[in-house]
Amino acid sequence: MILARISRAIREQNWFAVALEFVIVIAGVVIGFQIQGWSAMQSERDREVAYLARLHTEIEELQVTRERSVSRREGFYTRLVEFADMLNGRADDEPEEEHCAAIGLSFVVSNPTDRLAVLDELLSVGGFETIRSPEVRAAIGNYLLVVRRAEDSNALSRDMVIVLHDQFPHLIRAASRQGGIGLPYSEFECDFDGMRADPVFRNAFATNGFGFSTHNAHNLSVDGALSALHGTVDEVLELEAGHDLPPENTE
Asked: Where does the chain cross the membrane (predicted)?
């Protein structure tokens, strides 16, 4: 229809009408591009909010998952420090069963889970440009860096630590028990006097203590970086206590 009007105006040499029709055409194209650009920008914004909503949910789930494992190992670390003081004459207290359990499990320095599926997805598809917030991007980068450092450190700790009940069966004995939910666990019996008198064991225990201390420190670093990421995502999503997350875009 527009082309027909332009052709008629040209035949009639109505140059004002020709110019007006061209202005209408150009304006329509410009407005169309603007609408298309706005729609694409809004779609990208919806994707960002959906990613951040998923990230927020996964962070909270991961924090719950990690809490039991990390706090338990932090407790073991405390018992190992206490026993080191007793072993080296810096404390007059007598060790107890919980110290024996910590000694027996001092070789367990595997990483508690620290993966966030949404970050793996963003990495695999190269979608980090979807996250516009520089604060969130920085917090994600810091979290991934801290996780990588923890992985590298724990690899060294795993190579360092010794299964003490295998190397010193006369000083620490392990027995497998069945837990209340059907999972096996280990109980340990310790000869604390024999440990004090055995310099080889004391050296081995010091090695495990160092490896476990490093492992525990990196666990806490990962938790700190995860908590910082949680807070940053909260700020960007403008969350307050009791408010719901924006709905996830499933398209």
From this structure: 15-35
